[in-house]
Every structure is written in structure tokens, then in C-alpha cells.
Design brief:
- This is pyridoxal kinase.
- This protein has one domain: Ribokinase (UDP-N-acetylmuramoyl-L-alanine:D-glutamate ligase).
- It contains 8 helices and 14 strands.
- A 9-stranded mixed β-sheet has the order 3-1-6-7-10-11-12-13-14, with helices on both faces. A 3-stranded mixed β-sheet has the order 2-4-5, with no helix packed on it.
- Helix 1 runs parallel beside helix 7, helix 5 crosses helix 6 and helix 7 packs antiparallel against helix 8.
Length: about 290
């Protein structure tokens, strides 16, 4: 019997402190009418960016056991959505979910969590980068930030780039397999001042690019990429177009950053997600995404 509520296997870590990964994916997807099926990759005391001394428990063996049980039950899911991996081996578990548990015409969203601001995040290695290039072949949609775009393509991370060059980067990533590549924090040379943060997306099936420029806010909060990817996944699962899904993800993430900026909150905590979840049920106030020729 087909479940009346869409179900998405959410493959991420759990961080005790810091609104990242499963602690944002679960409430966002639930609020959007999607049932998240958690498949934890690791348990950490805090998120890893801007912190030290955090505890880290790799759940690779438990992931295999959970997947085996679901396979035995003949479970089927409408989506698979992955993020932070604890080791290269876990990417094979993601592939197993896509191959054996994803229903026909299901959605596979892979957020290739590797780094930010030009560097690998603390738990990542070059071996993880290599394996991620293999994993994204299984994706319908990938959501790398610009650092991850460069890591996956072996390009240098530096300065701003012409729009046409960034478009070629996204085409190159689509050549790995995904139909949709959504690049965040893309440094477009036409906007050299830090007044905009751009999202650039490529839809291979129609050979079209989409672009959104967002007002820049001088703050950095871990987990905003997870928030963006979670809303994007939920919106696509609801049947929204790519351009509308990008708009919803950007507007919700921007609202969260604005609600947090200026508050007496440590950046390590992430954005104040709880204050804005109800807005996910409201219609978009305006559309920012535009077609790029």
C-alpha cells in the first residue's frame, strides 16, 4: 500500500548543539508535509565548524543494519536526501538506498557536504572528495556551495568568476550524472562587491540556467546550506518547479538569517529556525528566480 504522505530517507548526522543536518531536515520536511525517515551517519556533541573538541560517533555499521531491515521489509521511499558523511564507506550505503529503496520516479537529492570558504571542513579528507565524485552520479539533484563545486571539479578556489565560466562549472558537474545542479554562494564577477550572494542552477533536461541574487548579510551561520537543501527537497517533493523550489529555499533561509542577525546568539548555534518554521506553509510573497540566457 502506497503511503499517502511522501517519505524521504534523510541521511545526515545528528549534532547536539548547532542547528544543522538532521536537526533542521526533520522539522523542515515535516512542516512541509513530508515524512522524514532518519538514517543517521554520525552523532556529534556539536556541529564541526568553529568548534573544537567535539565528540564524534561513526554510525556506519548501524546504517547498514537499518538499510538491511528496510530491504527485508520491502520498504519503498519517495525520496532519498543525503548530506554529511562520516567516512567514504557511507556513500556506498547512500547508493544502496537509491538502488534498492527509492521508488520508481523517486527523487535523489545529494548535498555534497565537503567544505566551505575554500577549505575542507574538519572531518573531511581528499578521499571523501574522490568518493563524492562517485556518489553524485546517483543523484537527481545536487546542491554544492562554490567551495564544493571547486573541490569536485579539481578547480582552484579564488575570487569572482565570469558568469559563463560558472555556467560551464555547473555543466561539468551535470556530466557526472545529476539532472539538476544548484550552486550556492556562487561568486559572479559582475557583482564584485559583497552586496549579493548568488545561487546559480542548471537544469540539464531542458539545458536552462536559473539565477537568484540575494542581499548579502555580513554573518556566517553553520547549517544554512542544510536549511536551503532541506526546503529545496521538500518543495521538489511537493511537485514545485525547480525555479519555485529555489525561491522558497532562498526566502526561508534568508528570513532565518535575518531573524538571527543582531540577536545575542552564538553563530555556532546556527539560525533561529524555530521562529520561522510556520512560514513554510505560507505562499511565496514574490518570485526572484530568473532564467539566464
Amino acid at each position: 500500500m502506497r503511503n499517502s504522505i511522501p517519505r524521504v530517507v534523510a541521511i545526515h548526522d545528528i549534532s547536539g548543539i548547532g542547528r544543522t543536518s538532521l536537526t533542521v531536515a526533520i522539522p523542515i520536511l515535516s512542516c512541509m508535509g513530508i515524512q522524514p525517515i532518519p538514517l543517521p551517519t554520525a552523532v556529534l556533541s556539536t556541529q564541526t565548524v568553529g568548534t573544537s573538541g567535539f565528540s564524534f560517533l561513526d554510525l556506519s555499521d548501524n546504517m547498514k543494519a537499518m538499510i538491511s531491515h528496510w530491504e527485508d521489509r520491502r520498504d519503498s521511499f519517495d525520496g532519498v536526501y543525503s548530506g554529511f558523511m562520516a567516512c567514504p564507506e557511507q556513500m556506498e550505503s547512500v547508493t544502496r538506498c537509491v538502488d534498492n529503496l527509492l521508488c520508481e520516479d523517486g527523487l535523489a537529492v545529494i548535498d555534497p557536504v565537503l567544505g566551505d570558504d575554500g577549505v575542507l571542513i574538519p572531518t573531511m579528507t581528499e578521499a571523501m572528495v574522490t568518493k563524492m565524485r562517485w556518489l553524485i552520479q546517483k543523484a537527481s539533484v545536487i546542491t554544492p556551495n562554490f567551495t564544493e563545486v571547486c573541490l569536485l571539479l579539481g578547480e582552484r578556489y579564488e575570487g569572482h568568476h565570469p558568469l559563463e565560466e560558472l555556467k560551464q562549472y555547473l555543466r561539468a558537474l551535470a556530466d557526472f550524472g545529476p539532472d539538476v545542479v544548484v550552486g550556492t554562494s556562487m561568486p559572479i564577477i559582475e557583482d564584485p562587491e559583497p552586496q549579493y550572494s548568488s545561487v546559480l542552477a542548471y537544469e540539464r533536461s531542458i539545458d536552462k540556467f536559473w539565477r537568484v541574487d540575494c542581499d548579502y548579510i555580513p554573518a556566517h551561520y553553520p547549517g544554512t546550506g542544510d536549511v536551503f537543501a532541506s526546503v529545496l527537497t521538500g518543495s521538489l517533493m511537493q511537485g514545485d518547479s525547480l525555479s519555485l523550489s529555489i525561491d522558497r529555499a532562498i526566502q526561508f533561509t534568508t528570513l532565518g538569517v535575518r531573524a538571527t542577525y543582531g540577536q545575542d546568539v552564538s553563530p555556532v548555534e546556527g539560525i533561529l529556525l524555530e521562529r520561522n518554521l510556520s512560514t513554510l506553509r505560507q505562499p511565496l510573497s514574490f518570485c526572484q528566480t530568473r532564467l539566464v540566457l
